[in-house]
Amino acid sequence: MAKANEFVKEIADIHGDFPQWYTDVVLKTQLVDYGPVKGTMVMRPYGYALWENIQRELDGRFKATGHRNAYFPMLIPYSFLMKEAEHVEGFAPEVALVTHIGDNELPEKLVVRPTSETIIGHMYSKWIQSYRDLPLLINQWANVVRWEKTTRPFLRTSEFLWQEGHTVHATREEAEEETLRMLGVYEEFSRNVLAIPMFTGRKSEKEKFAGADATYSIEAMMLDGKSLQSGTSHYLGDNFAKAFDIRFLDKDGSHKYPYQSSWGVSTRLIGAVIMAHGDERGLKLPPYVAPVQAVIIPIAMHKAGVIEKAEEIAATLAKAGIRVELDKSDNSPGWKFNEYEMKGVPLRIEIGPRDIENGVATVSRRDKAGEKFTLPLNDLVSGIQNLLREVHESMYAAALAFRDSHVKTVKNMKELGDAVNDNCFALSMWCGDRGCEDKIKEEFQATSRNMPFDQSPVGDKCVCCGKKAKYKIYWGKAY
RNA sequence: CGAGGUGUAGCGCAGUUUGGUAGCGCGCUUGGUUCGGGACCAAGAGGUCGUGGGUUCAAGUCCCGUCACCUCGACCA
């Protein structure tokens, strides 16, 4: 881990702010390819399989909390975007517009959705009449388009895949509760599935979603000490309800505006996985989302019985629900070792004449590359299942230890600057003024990440202006 | 949009200064030998040199235009 971090620092120094190894790894491991249009990506099967596993895990959690999936159109009338003042201002500069069909100009421009609050708001105003229609708990899996100026595979692409939850509640309290519940789902998912510890908390006014009353985020620390906003959950108040005239008749017989939440995570999570766990050898995928959890590499394939044994083991593991792949290609074993380590496959199982003779398989863990040990063939399924769990736990522990050692509590601007320039997050008190946030951005290229729910103070003065502090907040350089 | 850079085989590049047969590495194909940490031998396939025009007996190379992409600064899941 330490070695990987040194490597990242070194590369980061050479190539500016963004580590080149990241792009190299993404391309070499065949997660994605560049698309023909700048800033778009083609998700290759290996990368898409990773996304499918993330989807499946998340979707199960959404269902378990009472949500249902639906789908809304990709094209949105431009006028919809205009209905919520802050929302237009936030998104208009980066939306793609459809202006023509063939040679005919459209009477009204269409927006390729950058997010779906507006079209969903429009539909919800038709769907919701009574308090009996609430709460309305809906999620959408979709693609969105945001034309950012600079793009990075997974971290910031012109088009990306995500899920967006859009809920409607009769009361403010219920909507706020939902906002925090889903933030909690994201945190739990990150910890138990992606093996990434997240800082959860509220974003500053400056950093919040255009049109929201409050935005909460999960923030992950990458191995170069930078922050990646990995998911957000917004409390929308009644802003969109008023803009789209969503009203319900309450028990007391009066019309009321409901309160809403929206929340989303995207393919950016794949970027988080790469940069929170990966190293100079390539990917290090957390077992519960790895497209291939264990790869079987037959040794001396031409010798009698080797292939047959490897196939038998593959079938046994697959039957037990382990995502297993047998590589029968005629590449040399050494080549295969490097290939699957680069691709981040958590476990490698070697099976050769020597193993068969001894009734074992030779196994190696990606998170502890180089170490080899043996497992008895007669109990391989539980052996592999235990190892997958252990790999997950040690990956989480390593990420947490790294993060803990890269957070510094700071009292003044010098300490804050030193911390973020030393690839750390800074935790400080803050007066809450936009001016101080702007100043920190200007001086150190660091932005506020979020304000943790545990607001027990680490001082009483703002780190920047020295006035009485209102909040405890994390700062960091971010992707 | 401001500054800089690059376009030559699937990928990475040399060749451009000084115009003269289109090259190298990896990958790919075929055959053989190998196989416990990125194997080796042999034979092959693969090119409108980003693009349009000009100069010249002759242009990847020189001149003019144009397009695309990359890096760095202002916006962002």
Can you give a write-up of this model?
- This protein has 479 residues and is of the alpha+beta class.
- It folds into 3 domains: 2-277, BirA Bifunctional Protein, domain 2; 294-388, Anticodon-binding domain (Rossmann fold), CATH 3.40.50.800; 407-476, Translation Initiation Factor IF3.
- It has 15 helices and 24 strands.
- The chain has helices at 2-15, 20-28, 45-64, 78-82, 85-91, 117-127, 172-194, 239-243, 268-277, 306-319, 333-342, 353-358, 380-404, 413-421, 434-444, and strands spanning 32-34, 41-43, 68-69, 75-77, 96-101, 104-112, 136-145, 159-169, 198-202, 214-221, 227-237, 248-249, 255-256, 259-266, 294-298, 324-326, 347-351, 360-365, 372-376, 407-409, 425-430, 447-448, 451-452, 471-476.
- The strands form 6 sheets. Strands 3-7-8-14-11-10-9-23 form an 8-stranded mixed sheet. A 5-stranded mixed sheet has the order 16-15-17-18-19, sandwiched between helices.
- The longest helix has 25 residues, at 380-404.
- The protein is globular and about 80 Å long.
- Residues 1-16 have low confidence and may be disordered.
- The structure holds one RNA strand of 77 nucleotides.
What is the overall silhouette?
globular
Major β-sheet strand ordering: 3-7-8-14-11-10-9-23
DSSP, total strands? 24
Q: Overall pLDDT, averaged?
A: 92
Question: What would you report as the Rg, rounded to the nearest angstrom?
Answer: 25 Å
Number of domains: 3
Structural class: alpha+beta
Q: What is the helix tally?
A: 15
In the CATH scheme, what's the topology name of the largest domain?
BirA Bifunctional Protein, domain 2
Q: Classify the beta-strand content into a percent band.
A: 25-35%
Q: Which bin fits the share of residues in helices?
A: 25-40%
Q: Low-confidence runs (pLDDT<50, min 5 residues)?
A: 1-16
In the CATH hierarchy, the architecture of the largest domain is 2-Layer Sandwich
CATH class of the largest domain: Alpha Beta
Biggest sheet record: 8 strands, mixed
Distance between the termini: 21 Å
CATH homologous group name of the largest domain: Bira Bifunctional Protein, Domain 2
